[in-house]
Description:
The structure holds two protein chains of two kinds. By secondary structure, chain A is α/β, with parallel strands linked by helices. Chain A is 41% helix and 24% strand. Chain B has one domain (2-177): fumarase, CATH 3.20.130.10. In chain B, strand 6 and strand 7 form a beta hairpin.
Amino acid sequence: MTDTTEKDEVRQISVLEITSQIKEMCIEANHFLSKDMEQAIRKAEEKEESGLAKQILEQLCENMKIAGEEMIPICQDTGMTVIFLEIGQNVHFIDGFLEDAVNEGVRQGYDEGFLRKSVVLHPLERINTNDNTPAIIHYSFVRGNQVRITVAPKGFGSENMSKIFMLKPSDGIEGVKQSVISAVKDAGPNACPPIVVGVGIGGTFERCAFLSKKALLRNLENKTEDPLIKKLETELLDEINQLGIGPGGLGGKTTALAVNIETSPTHIAGLPVAVNICCHVNRHVTRVF
Amino acid sequence: MEKHLKLPLSKIDITDLKAGDMVFLTGEIYTARDAAHKRIFEAIQKNEALPIRIEGTILYYMGPSPARPGRPIGSAGPTTASRMDKYTPVLLEMGLSGMIGKGKRSQEVKLSIMKNEAIYFAAIGGAGALLSKAISNSEVIAYEDLGTEAIRKLWVEDFPVIVVIDTLGNDLYEIGHNVI
């Protein structure tokens, strides 16, 4: 029972620690893909038969190598910094305000890591903040006294191709499939395929969009346990890869590397479906402390 | 077909290119993306002097990440071209030779490419580290306040691109899907 007692103890964490972790994570995420993402791209390269498609995937592998060895960001769009903070309810933050500390980490990471500053303060006035802040921060509270941080810089080539559909319950699985396929088709070459497709099903309008973003973080090798969803993920991936969009949108079998679906309870009248598309530079780094 | 071409491109260079050709470009190109296009477009409407000569130029839709010390440029891959569609036909009418980007173009841009005998190339999206290796010099020449969106003059050496839309209006994104 020691474990429980320890987790129940209030733990003080300095927000300065959060700043320093986030700074490092921004730099790491923009130069190194997770092992599962890297594996998925390499596997696709081995499977692809068409000359051009194979060639493009080879170049994406070469690109990852150069990025890591020479510390040049994998993509020049180093993204809007999306941060998930899962905070144990027994954590007490000291030495400052948490949100400020998170943004300070982003500021330092994007400056010291030579990352592009891609955020404008007002969506219509469009003046660059020149430090990539503010970050998009999603907070949640969990049991215990640890903090789990995920930094996921999101490029907008693919973000722009994402969609939300407010389906009717009677549309069912078929409706969900059609929605996802139509979003991927419309995205075509613009979203920098091969893509990862994050899908949120259920909840409310905003909950479902959040889930589709969260779905992109899942390790590609970890399949969902829900048999209905697992089947849907497999079928959708097959159908998407038959569209022929291919790497770079120039034709081929590899249009998507994975379809990850997250679900949520929803209303008797609704079936929201959100499709968050991510390019092959699906970046995310997680640390727990 | 694989081709190595020196910039600027002649009309014959351009009309000889076919959708699907792999081309390696050497010479000067200029970067311009959303904010720079908007300013150029507004300057044209107001009849003001432009910071670059449009005729005979190749525009690269790109906003790089900052260069580390000792390097000409940071990560430097293409951005989505369709966001520039609104401004493109005017530039093509002024003699713009070509564009490097990624993704689909509007029908209006396609028709203007055909009419003005220009060319639309794609570079590989998300391969910014690799593409940066083909850029040997970069200099901000206008709109410096736009940061990454400033207009830069780049010197590229064997910069790899693929012809997507040629002067006959062939579109590789449409052809490509049928190859599977």
